[in-house]
């Protein structure tokens, strides 16, 4: 009796506990940049529960890959329309065959060539990831690619030098030498810390205005 694909998958051992197998990031610049990308998007989408962000996390996409120990983990990836909960790694066959909708690699001296060639081909031909960006925290090189007819094509920046991401419904661009998100109007998306500082600034500004009118805001 032949088995269906689902029945075969059901007979396989649970792979959801596979640990990530990614090396340490190149420098503190890379750590800061990655943390900023994660924090800003998590904050902006804080009311949503239907996405997963992977940060320096291995993507396991085949059991042959496990045997060969051919591990591949983007610095940053986004999967939409999935459950938002912690994972030790992203195991494609345990996630209904889902691959990332967006990948961002942070270039370094040791990874730049692989990111521009081998990983680009993998994300294009195997993952079919709709959008792939790479950014160098050192040189500020930024490039965006979108899958068009199964082949990556460059994303042209707008007049502000921002690259539109259909997966994010946001722009990506450089601000203060960091890769940041921008809204449809080109306004910077703040981090939680920046948002807190802005709220404090506005509160102090309002208090000053009230005092100028003879009103003590603390009473």
UniProtKB/TrEMBL annotation:
One of its GO terms (molecular function) is endonuclease activity. Signal peptide: none annotated. Coiled coil: none annotated. The keyword Oxidoreductase does not apply. The keyword Nuclease applies. It comes from the Bacteria. Residues 29-170 form the Putative restriction endonuclease domain. InterPro entries: Nuclease_put_TT1808 (IPR012296), Restrct_endonuc-II-like (IPR011335), Uma2 (IPR008538). Keywords: Endonuclease, Hydrolase, Nuclease. PANTHER family: SLR1095 PROTEIN, SLR1612 PROTEIN. This is Uma2 family endonuclease. The lineage of its organism: Bacteria, Bacillati, Cyanobacteriota, Cyanophyceae, Leptolyngbyales.
């Amino acid at each position: 009796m032949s088995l269906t694909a689902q029945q075969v998958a059901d007979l396989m051992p649970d792979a959801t506990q596979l640990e990530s197998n990614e090396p340490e990031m190149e420098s503190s610049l890379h750590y800061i940049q990655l943390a900023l990308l994660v924090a800003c998007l998590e904050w902006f989408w804080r009311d949503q529960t239907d996405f997963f962000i992977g940060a320096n996390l291995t993507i396991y996409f085949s059991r042959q890959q496990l045997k060969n120990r051919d591990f591949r983990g983007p610095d940053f990836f986004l999967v939409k329309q999935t459950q938002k909960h912690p994972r030790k790694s992203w195991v494609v066959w345990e996630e209904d065959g889902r691959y990332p909708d967006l990948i961002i690699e942070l270039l370094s001296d040791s990874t730049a060539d692989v990111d521009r060639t081998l990983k680009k081909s993998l994300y294009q031909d195997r993952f079919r990831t709709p959008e792939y960006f790479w950014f160098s925290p050192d040189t500020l090189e930024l490039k965006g690619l979108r899958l068009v007819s199964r082949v990556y094509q460059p994303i042209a920046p707008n007049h502000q030098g921002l690259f539109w991401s259909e997966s994010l419904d946001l722009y990506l661009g450089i601000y203060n030498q960091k890769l940041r998100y921008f809204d449809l109007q080109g306004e910077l998306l703040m981090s939680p810390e920046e948002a807190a500082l802005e709220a404090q600034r506005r509160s102090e500004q309002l208090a000053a205005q009230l005092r100028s009118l003879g009103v003590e805001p603390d009473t």
